[in-house]
Design brief:
Elements lengths: L10 E4 L3 E6 L12 E6 L1 H11 L4 E8 L2 H13 L1 E2 L3 E4 L6 E4 L9 E4 L16 H6 L2 E5 L8 H12 L4 E5 L10 H11 L5 E5 H8 L4 H10 L4 E5 L5 E5 L2 E5 L12 H15 L3 H16 L11 H7 L5
Length: 319
């Protein structure tokens, strides 16, 4: 069965898409870079790609420009096995591009070209296939989708339509450049949390979401807000997860970092995979950590997403 013959998806994401333009020279500023590579990008899109690479039926709800980069997005999604039926163009807006500088191990400045707005922030409620949203085993949205209208209304409508079905994930993915203030983001996260079963973010994103940076306190605050599973990423300190069965912390997987930008999205796709497999929390987070580490050791994001064998190899052959 091909992706387009399927009417339901194991993983359906909604949110940002674009073209990542990454320098082929590492450790220098964009003003000194002489050549670039072009890659599919955008957090929600990358998560769908990551899930597809792990063998999941995946699709993304997003918007592009009606331009060559928009055609590239469709071609790239097809190549990764991600269903693109919910990816449509917005007249008058270009497909966003994102440049980065690469200074390993932990400095990767991003430059987003998404003004005056981005097509993926023009997703409208009346355009959504809410039956597909309801039917997905895992539905994944990001905080960026709450940053502007009409995407904000559409994201909340999709979350409400889920009605407690399956796994509903909010990626706390807070990007300050997309918001007027952190307090505005906090208010919109508070509107979304009652509809989600899983919340995922790093310590800084948790502070915006629930006012806590301590991992245990942040996880408790997210659980108190109604989520079943709270996942707090701590970088080199590993990742903490809390659900109804208790709390686990799993260590980071050592890797020589090349570009850390796609690691969180690889983690997200692998988290979806573990939840769909019905693994316990420790095994799920260990697998997700390894997927993130794998991508951190590569230049690209979507192009670098690992398959199950590659993640297993990162864990020494034991997934």
């Amino acid at each position: 069965m091909t992706a387009h013959e399927s009417t339901s998806f194991e993983v359906l994401t909604m949110g940002r898409v674009g073209v990542d333009v990454y320098p082929e020279q590492i450790g220098v500023g964009l003003d000194e870079v002489t050549s670039f590579g072009k890659f599919l990008g955008g957090s929600a899109t990358n998560v769908a790609v990551a899930a597809a690479r792990l063998g999941r039926r995946a699709a993304v709800i997003t918007r592009t420009g009606d331009d060559p980069f928009g055609r590239f997005v469709h071609r790239a999604l097809g190549g990764f096995g991600v269903d693109d039926r919910f990816v449509t163009p917005v007249a008058g807006l270009p497909t966003p591009v994102t440049f980065c500088e690469i200074f390993p191990p932990d400095h990767f400045p991003l430059y987003f070209y998404r003004l005056p707005t981005a097509p993926d922030l023009q997703i409208r409620t009346d355009e959504l296939d809410l039956d597909a949203v309801r039917a997905a085993d895992v539905f994944w949205v990001t905080v960026t989708g709450l940053s502007q209208e009409p995407s904000r209304e559409a994201t909340l409508a999709a979350l409400e339509a889920r009605g407690g079905r399956g796994v509903t994930v909010l990626d706390l993915d807070y990007r300050p450049m997309f918001w007027e203030s952190a307090s505005e983001a906090s208010a919109q996260v508070a509107r979304a949390l009652p509809y989600v079963t899983v919340a995922v973010g790093n310590r800084e994103e948790c502070e915006v979401a629930v006012g806590e940076t301590d991992p245990e306190s942040a996880a408790k605050a997210l659980r108190d807000a109604g989520v079943d599973l709270a996942v707090v990423k701590q970088g080199p300190a590993g990742v903490l997860g809390t659900d109804a069965h208790g709390q686990v912390t799993v260590p980071a997987v050592p890797v020589e970092v090349v570009n850390g930008l796609g690691a969180g999205d690889a983690f997200g796709g692998a988290l979806c995979h573990g939840l769909l497999e019905g693994w316990d929390l420790r095994r799920t987070l260990t697998f997700a950590n390894a997927a993130g580490a794998y991508v951190a050791g590569q230049l690209a994001c979507a192009d670098a997403m690992p398959d199950v064998a590659q993640v297993t190899a990162m864990l020494g052959g034991d997934a």
